Amino acid sequence: MLKRPSSMKFAAGAYVFPGGSVDPADGEAKIGWLGPSAEEFGEKLGASAELARALVCAAVRETFEEAGILLAGTPDKELAVPEGPDWDADRAALTAGEVSLAELLARRGLVLRADLLTPWARWITPLAEPRRFDTRFFAAALPVGQTVVGHAAEADQVAWLRPADGLAAARRGEMSLLPPTATTLSEFAAATGAGDILSRKRTIAPIEPVLITENGRAWLEVPDGVGYLP
């Protein structure tokens, strides 16, 4: 998890998962791909194959940019291990927009490992929020041999912790969590293990909390069935 810098306009100081916006280049068909097709992802995400492909590629790119984890490997399924000065330079170039994910993978002889990700959820910010986001969440297991390395421009701190520990820290006031983050951690904490998370069949329906203001106080109302823990 990444702690957002206090200078950010949205969710300053909150602990969030790696992520970001879809770039135009994320939908490039020339990105090498191994695993379930974009059509299969689209069926799970309730999106077109084109959008689903861009969402998966954006998830892989942003996770590498912000956490140093690359969900990619050779066509024969050998996982990438992005370590060393050359990889640091590639990561910096990707973050700066000097190279696209397609170019980076092609130069390294790698393909995106779509089989390592599973769609998890979709959250939309409340209508009353001035900065609105429509965000898909994915789950993935940390590839063997890779280590989380945060990006200083994106995070004040990096935390690698068990979901239950993150929730406990939030209850103690040590971490600030947005509803999607808290809900996801709660769902992960209830799982029996990584295999349970990655193999679970989920219905990805949009979750859009409602902001309610009454007597000078404001709170969020989340739909029934959403396991949000404040």
How would you describe the overall organization of this protein?
By secondary structure, the chain is of the alpha+beta class. The chain has a domain at 2-161: Nucleoside Triphosphate Pyrophosphohydrolase (Alpha-Beta Complex), CATH 3.90.79.10. The protein is built from seven helices and eleven strands. The chain has helices at 38-45, 49-67, 85-95, 101-108, 163-171, 179-190, 194-199, and strands at 2-3, 15-16, 33-34, 72-73, 111-113, 117-124, 134-140, 157-158, 206-207, 210-214, 217-221. It has a three-stranded antiparallel sheet with strand order 2-1-8, with no helix packed on it. The chain has a three-stranded mixed sheet with strand order 3-5-4, with no helix packed on it. Strands 7-6-9 form a three-stranded mixed sheet. Strand 10 (210-214) and strand 11 (217-221) form a beta hairpin. Helix 2 (49-67) packs across helix 3 (85-95). The longest helix has 19 residues, at 49-67. The protein is globular and about 60 Å long. The protein starts with a strand and ends in a 9-residue tail after the last strand. The mean pLDDT is 89.
Q: Low-confidence segments, ≥5 residues, pLDDT <50?
A: none
What is the mean predicted local confidence, pLDDT? 89
Question: What is the first-to-last residue Cα distance?
Answer: 17 Å
CATH class of the domain at 2-161: Alpha Beta
**What do we call the CATH topology of the domain at 2-161?**
Nucleoside Triphosphate Pyrophosphohydrolase
Query: In terms of quaternary structure, what is this?
Result: single chain
